[in-house]
Amino acid sequence: xxxxxxxxxxEAEKASIHPMDIGLIRGYxxxxxxxxxxxxxxxxxxxxxxxxxxxxxxxLSLTLNKEELRSIIHELIAKNDLEAGGIRMVLTxxxxxNHFSPTKGSLFIFCEDLDFxxxxxxxxxxxxxxxxxxxxxxxxxxxxxxxxxxxxATWKKEGAEDVIYHLNNIISESSRSNIFIVKDGQIxxxxxxxxxxxxxxxxxxxxxxxxxxxxxxSELLEADEVFMTSTTKKIxxxxxxxxxxxxxxxxxxxxxxxxxxxxxxEQKSSV
Length: 271
Ligand code: PLP
Prior knowledge:
It holds the Pfam family Aminotran_4. By secondary structure, this protein is α+β, with helices and mostly antiparallel strands. It has 8 helices and 15 strands. It has helices spanning about 20-25, 45-55, 65-80, 120-125, 145-155, 200-205, 215-220, 255-270, and strands at about 1-5, 10, 30-35, 40, 85-90, 105-110, 125-130, 160-165, 170, 180-185, 185-190, 210, 225-230, 235-240, 245. Strands 7, 8, 9, 10, 11, 12, 13, 14 and 15 form a 9-stranded mixed β-sheet that branches. It has a 4-stranded antiparallel β-sheet with strand order 4-3-5-6. Strands 1-2 form a two-stranded antiparallel sheet. Helix 6 links the parallel strand 11 and strand 12. The protein starts with a strand and ends with a helix. The site of pyridoxal-5'-phosphate (PLP) has 12 residues, from helix 6 and strand 13. Pyridoxal-5'-phosphate binds next to helix 6 and strand 13.
């Protein structure tokens, strides 16, 4: 398995990072993650734009431009024969004298195997646990997922797939996915305190009448359908939240239709 690390393409086991990198000691870094489909990086342009935007917003310098990143990615797909997998780009804060200020960071691009949630989860839907929280600097894809990693023991014990964040009765997103609700045929999704997901963007293209607005926790619980979107889950039905059943407790028709349309888009898409 080959990766890009230490400014070149090398075998993944040879990649290294300085132990005092503030990515490690302060959790200061950014990343992005996309999939390959038929050896093509799916919706790559959107992911590269987001990665570059995250770097700019966190004051990290990406020494490679979009075209250079694109060419390394294509080289890695070919070298690793990555027909359908995941690609992770990480940029750390770097090593600094005061162990605090970002400097020239380390850029890594890794290829990974990727498993989608089990078929049963698409057929029956999943459970989310409501958690009072709002992500700080929500629109930057930082590497800091300390809270959800720590909290995952709780949601696993409860048989949940993940969490749904809410604060002052307003919902935002799940720990690694965006959220949509359907009520009386109308699709809606939160407007604030979210990462602007690429899968969310695709859903907004497939359902342009979606309302982007503030959504309350009670609206979520009373919705006919709820679904979550992410690169690794596509469009996954949510059929319960805490002890509450959503709608009839089965994946709804809009959710299923959107997943079919999304998968057709994936087939057609080129970068
Ligand atoms: N929200 C958060 C906090 C995430 O970490 C992610 C994905 O990792 C998403 C939403 C979904 O984004 P995407 O559809 O681009 O994977």
